[in-house]
Amino acid sequence: MDIKDIKILICDDSILSRKKLRDYISSLGCENIYDAEDGEDAIAQYTNLNPDLVFMDIVMPRKDGIEALRAILEMDEEAFIVMASSVGTQSYLKDAIKAGAKDFLQKPLDSEQVKQLIDNFCKGGY
What we know:
Blueprint: E1 7-11, H1 15-27, E2 32-36, H2 39-49, E3 53-57, H3 65-75, E4 81-85, H4 89-99, E5 103-106, H5 111-122
Parallel strand pairs: 1-2, 1-3, 3-4, 4-5
Helix pairs in contact: 2-3
C-alpha cells in the first residue's frame, strides 16, 4: 500500500497538535488526511470516512480517546488506531492496549516514530 493512497484520521482536541501532525504526514506524501476534535467527532468521522489509520489523543472533552477507541472497534474490529498522550502515559498505555489500540505514541510526537509507524503500516508490518 502506498502512503498517498491511505486515509488517515487525526483526532486531537488541540488544533495546533492536529495541524502539526497533519503537516508532517502531508510532507510524507499522504493526500487523504482528516481531522476530528474529540472522541465523539472521531466516531462520526470514522463512520463517514472509514480511514485506514487513526491517530487518537486520549485526554479529550465530551468523549475521551479510549471511549472512542472502544466505540470504533465495536463498529469495525479491524480498525487500526494508534493512541497518543502526554498525560500519565503508563496507566493510559495499559488501558489503550487492553481496549484494542494497535500502538501507543507519547507526546510530543517524534516525527521519526510517526514516519516509521506509517511505513510499517503501509508495508503490512503490523
